[in-house]
Amino acid sequence: xxxxxxxxxxxxxxxxxxxxxxxxxxxxxxxxxxxxxxxxxxxxxxxxxxxxxxxxxxxxxxxxxxxxxxxxxxxxxxxxxxxxxxxxxxxxxxxxxxxxxxxxxxxxxxxxxxxxxxxxxxxxxxxxxxxxxxxxxxxxxxxxxxxxxxxxxxxxxxxxxxxxxxxxxxxxxxxxxxxxxxxxxxxxxxxxxxxxxxxxxxxxxxxxxxxxxxxxxxxxxxxxxxxxxxxxxxxxxxxxxxxxxxxxxxxxxxxxxxxxxxxxxxxxxxxxxxxxxxxxxxxxxxxxxxxxxxxxxxxxxxxxxxxxxxxxxxxxxxxxxxxxxxxxxxxxxxxxxxxxxxxxxxxxxxxxxxxxxxxxxxxxxxxxxxxxxxxxxxxxxxxxxxxxxxxxxxxxxxxxxxxxxxxxxxxxxxxxxxxxxxxxxxxxxxxxxxxxxxxxxxxxxxxxxxxxxxxxxxxxxxxxxxxxxxxxxxxxxxxxxxxxxxxxxxxxxxxxxxxxxxxxxxxxxxxxxxxxxxxxxxxxxxxxxxxxxxxxxxxxxxxxxxxxxxxxxxxxxxxxxxxxxxxxxxxxxxxxxxxxxxxxxxxxxxxxxxxxxxxxxxxxxxxxxxxxxxxxx
Length: 617
Description:
Largest sheet: 8 strands, mixed
Helix content: 40-55%
Radius of gyration: 29 Å
CATH architecture of the domain at 316-429 and 496-609: Alpha-Beta Complex
Structural class: alpha/beta
Strand content: 15-25%
């Protein structure tokens, strides 16, 4: 044993260290091996993802039995268009788009196997007021077929109750509640936080745009009089629409409904039943038994599965109407991998494809956007003008079609909106932070400069804008505002002064927008399609959706092809898009701060957008 130890010791002493070149070669070889292995693992992971998503897109058709009740769960509806498979894979839940739900409900009205609908509200729907109005219209049409609609909830949100009140029988858990208290608005202001951090947000907007309040959240501590005026007007308009609809469905006078909201006397289950807001207090099992006993309901089938069947039905029409979806914040460029906004280049491309497709006889632009970057807005508006020269263009407004969302709409032949749509906000602003105090007083950082010209460093976040730079920025916003108003005047056949009087950044509901000429008529996507078909002179038509959904391989290639920095940004976009869909419809301040900070940090140039979300809670 001792001799063996001595032998090993001698060997260790005689072993020579690797030379520098050999060490570098070994390291490089190790990196290559690790990279190859990593690439193989990534490739296998991509294959696995594609295989999993291929199963999601299988051609299996759901069997619909006789006397089936379709369940419409508000918690499963998000956005206008059902998310693509890749986006759903990254998402926390599987959701369905509003358009697919509406189409499924309209199809079910004439389906002999569908006996009725069961509406469910989980108390926090991801559906906002205009979408709820569009759903309610579809439910009204379904009810006209004579088939029953039943609703159930452990707790109704305010927007959920507005929708579910259309049901023939409204049921509530015995310990549940109805959040029926009237509409309110909350705007979060950051000025005092920024003051503590030593950050001054420099707001640039046209002098006349006193209603364009988006930038005020960084420069004020409370609502300006103009902002308070416009918010009071539009929430009052939305509430009136909701109360009148509930009154018609439940047979309760509007003044009584308002008294119930004022005193919260419909909030608790027993009070809600006593005031006839609901018909029955029961458990979910009781509702299922009632469907079996009263309507011979033999199967409950999720609307998502039924909608998949509807989408697979072939349409042999030669003529087509293009439906172009513009949903989310307006940004420059093109979506990479996962689409989470209105990308200017993608919408322009879609408009050109539809314009040049001989089978497409008309275009419906579905806008659901609070606005965003002015440059992207201008590009899309120009593309709409080009498309209108060749084919009818009709706009269907969703929950929001404001600021840049309205600019891209104003050049259409006809604009259709819901009475609860938020639109207008014709204006522009720019914000540039000044972090001089933060850098010097809080962090002890002192930037110094060298320049060749007077304003080489005049546009920087490290000090206030120079007078020349501020003058240039002011001219920029004033010029864009004039262009924006001129576009609206041309598209809506009004004078500049007439548009300016109702512009200045002011927000309107669809109901008010019809009265002042910003919208032509009230209705949903179905009405927009009917108008487009009439203008094109066609009766039978297929629907072609744009932007065209990319195949999974293309999306994954784009996703995996990002640089490391872009991958981080993309991961952030995915995470925020997921939270946006899950939380933006329900006011949750912490998530809203995260969204705002992300938007500020990634935005460049002039902005034409809304500073708030209209909640349906």
